[in-house]
Amino acid sequence: MNTKAFRDGIRDGIPICLGYLAVSFSLGISAREAGLTPFQGFITSFLENASAGEYIAFALIGAGATYIEVCLMTIIANARYLLMSCAMSQRFSEDTPFFHRFLVAFDLTDELFGIAIARPGYLNPYYSYGAFLVALPGWSIGTAIGIMAGNMLPEDIVSALSVALFGMFLAIIIPPAKKDKIVLVLIIISFTASYLFSVIPGIRSISSGTRTIILTLLIAGTAALLFPVKEEETEAVS
Question: Is the pTM of this model over 0.70?
Answer without folding.
Answer: no
